[in-house]
Specification:
The complex is a heterodimer of chains A (115) and B (111).
Chain A lengths: L4 E3 L2 E4 L5 E6 L6 E8 L3 E9 L2 E5 L6 E5 L5 E5 L8 E8 L10 E2 L3 E5 L1
Parallel strand pairs in A: 2-11
Antiparallel strand pairs in A: 1-3, 3-8, 4-5, 4-9, 5-6, 7-8, 9-10, 9-11
Chain B lengths: L2 E5 L2 E5 L4 E8 L5 E7 L6 E6 L5 E4 L2 E5 L3 E6 L8 E8 L7 E3 L3 E6 L1
Parallel strand pairs in B: 2-11
Antiparallel strand pairs in B: 1-3, 3-8, 4-5, 4-9, 6-7, 7-8, 9-10, 9-11
Classes of the chains: A mainly beta (115), B mainly beta (111).
């Protein structure tokens, strides 16, 4: 158990809908990262937050957004969902912003299925 | 653009048959090379971080090594419970702290 929690575990929804995925980082960790894992693309970095502020962006679509709250939990919002958004979404956390020597610890993931 | 390539894509071993997994990287200013283990439907589980060429780390039957262009994960006398996908990732540091992942090696160890 990494100490990172994610809810829900599974989510099934329809095209065009909007969903929110939630992540609680390990106790004391200030950085949260979101990743998408699909069969053909592997694990792709989406976005990073540090202590409430956005710090880095990866291959995140404009239909997706995220935020980190004062209690350090984070939410990833996915809107106007398409079939291709079906994937595993992982949250990871690490202690510090600079993080080059910090390990990212991953949560159990949310499996999103768009029908 | 940062790239991490893992080989082979899949590897089948008999219990006790040692082998190595390869991770080659093109990450500008590599600041860390990470190995994770992932079981089906679960989150990646941290194994090792390597920071400089020549560094080695060990954990039970696993040993990770790093050169200037690649990393190896050596598995000695594997057991069926070592079956998983092994992921390698590079961190280029700087202003972007993302991990760039390879697609992984699916390891199956038969009893």
């Amino acid at each position: 158990d990494s100490g990172v929690t994610q809810t829900p575990k599974h989510l099934i929804t329809a095209t065009g809908q909007r969903v929110t995925l939630r992540c609680s980082p390990r106790s004391g960790d200030l950085s949260v990262y979101w990743y998408q894992q699909s069969l053909d693309q592997g694990l792709q970095f989406l976005i990073q937050y540090y202590n409430g502020e956005e710090r880095a962006k990866g291959n995140i679509l404009e239909r997706f957004s995220a935020q980190q709250f004062p209690d350090l939990h984070s939410e990833l919002n996915l809107s106007s969902l398409e079939l291709g958004d079906s994937a595993l979404y992982f949250c990871a956390s690490s202690p510090r912003r600079a993080g080059v020597r910090d390990t990212q610890y991953f949560g159990p993931g949310t499996r999103l299925t768009v029908l | 653009e940062d790239q991490v390539t893992q080989s082979p894509e899949a590897l089948r071993l008999q219990e006790g048959e040692s082998s190595s997994l390869n991770c080659s990287y093109t990450v500008s200013g590599l600041r860390g090379l990470f190995w994770y283990r992932q079981d089906p439907g679960k989150g990646p589980e941290f194994l090792f971080t390597l920071y400089s060429a020549g560094e080695e780390k060990e954990k039970e039957r696993l040993k990770a090594t790093l050169t200037k262009k690649e990393s190896f994960l050596h598995i000695t006398a594997p057991k069926p419970e070592d079956s998983a996908t092994y992921l390698c990732a590079g961190n280029s540091g700087g202003s972007n702290y993302k991990l760039t992942f390879g697609k992984g090696t699916l390891l199956t160890v038969n009893p």
